[in-house]
Specification:
One of its GO terms (molecular function) is structural constituent of ribosome. Keywords: Ribonucleoprotein, Ribosomal protein, RNA-binding, rRNA-binding. By secondary structure, the chain is of the alpha+beta class. It has helices spanning 2-33, 45-58, 117-122, 134-143, 194-201, 209-216, 232-235, 239-242, 260-269, 293-309, 337-348, and strands at 73-74, 80-81, 152-159, 171-175, 186-189, 205-207, 224-227, 271-275, 281-288, 320-327, 333-334. The chain is globular, with a radius of gyration of 43 Å.
Length: 349
């Protein structure tokens, strides 16, 4: 009995180191193959492939063929791809069905998606890329005027000018023979006997130093400000107030004149100032859409002749680029520039 116990203990003592050794070796082998801390599998696709290749190579498909290492696939996201469909074994991503666009969202032009229904209907009356002659354009403009108020008739010209150069600046006035259709409130800065002359000519507001102080205090209830030359040194202090509003008296605009009576009469009858903006475009109102067509054409051709007559000395090449007519709330109508200039020449003769 003692001998059997000794033999069992001896055998267990002999086997214990081997078992311990095998356990330690297995732990080391597992530690190499399956480390306790594995980095992000998406960040290290090559590391993932290294761990998955032995298992993949040992698995056979239903036909009994063993997978080769070259057949192991990594998808675009860096994941191990079991079935080779490119989605890492998870299948394609779900994309919700999109509803078909209807109404304004289905319009091909993005700018039309913000237009009103009224605008979208009236713009069908004209072809967007067609160039019209002046009488036809005026007729279309009157037809497309459908706002609840009397709209203004506007002309927009893109000129071959760069106003950052002094010799390419365009600023002038034009006397509309049929008037503007608007009531202009005129203020006059003068002194002495000219105060009575201005009131007799129909000026709405007349004053001198006291009017300057009122303007400095925020008084702006006028559309035009006319000044006599002797008042300009005092008017200079109003530059920061009147300049941004386009009301600063200027000889080129006809608002600085020794003949106060004539200046008032011209602006009351329909004198309009225009200038080219920083993009090289001239915007000029030339009446109301309820004018007769003949009156609108007469005003428009007066505008064309004035722009042509005041061509800057620095203008090079083609002076007129594009010309459009429109009402205040209506779509634009493109004009044929050659026919427009010829029409103006014929009418002037």
């Amino acid at each position: 009995m003692a001998m059997a116990t000794a033999a069992a203990s001896a055998s267990s003592s002999l086997l214990a180191p081997a078992a311990a050794t095998s356990t330690a070796a297995g732990s080391a082998h597992n530690a190499v193959l399956f480390p306790s801390t594995v980095p992000s599998l998406r960040a290290y696709p090559r590391l993932l492939l290294a761990f998955r290749r032995p298992a993949a190579a040992a698995v056979a498909d239903p036909q009994g063929a063993v997978l080769d290492e070259e057949e192991v696939v990594i998808d675009q996201g860096g994941r191990y791809d079991d079935d080779g469909d490119g989605y890492g074994g998870r299948g394609p991503a779900f994309t919700p069905p999109t509803k078909p666009r209807t109404g304004k969202a289905a319009l091909p032009l993005k700018r039309d998606r913000t237009r009103s229904k009224r605008f979208l209907e009236i713009q069908k009356l004209r072809e967007s890329k067609k160039e019209y002659d002046v009488p036809t354009a005026v007729t279309l403009m009157k037809q497309m005027s459908s706002a609840k108020f009397v709209e203004s008739a506007e002309a927009h010209f893109r000129m071959n000018l760069d106003p950052k150069y002094n010799d390419q600046q365009l600023r002038a006035t034009v006397n509309l023979p049929k008037g503007t259709g608007q009531t202009v409130k005129i203020a006059v800065l003068t002194q002495g006997e000219k105060i009575d002359e201005a009131r007799a000519a129909g000026a709405d507001i007349v004053g001198g130093d006291e009017l300057i102080e009122q303007i400095k205090g925020g008084f702006m209830e006028f559309d035009k400000l006319i000044a006599s030359p002797d008042m300009m040194p005092k008017v200079a202090s109003l530059g920061k107030i009147l300049g941004p509003r386009g009301l600063m008296p200027n000889p080129k605009a006809g608002t600085v004149s020794p003949n106060i009576t004539q200046a008032i009469e011209e602006f009351k009858k329909g004198k309009v100032e225009f200038r080219v903006d920083k993009t090289g475009i001239v915007h000029i109102p030339f009446g109301k859409v309820d004018f007769p067509e003949e009156d609108l054409i007469a005003n428009f051709m007066a505008v064309v002749r004035s722009v042509e007559r005041n061509k800057p000395s620095g203008a090079k090449g083609i002076y007129w680029k594009t010309a459009y007519l429109c009402s205040s709330m209506g779509p634009s109508i493109k004009l044929n520039i050659k026919e427009m200039l010829d029409y103006g020449t014929d009418s002037s003769n």
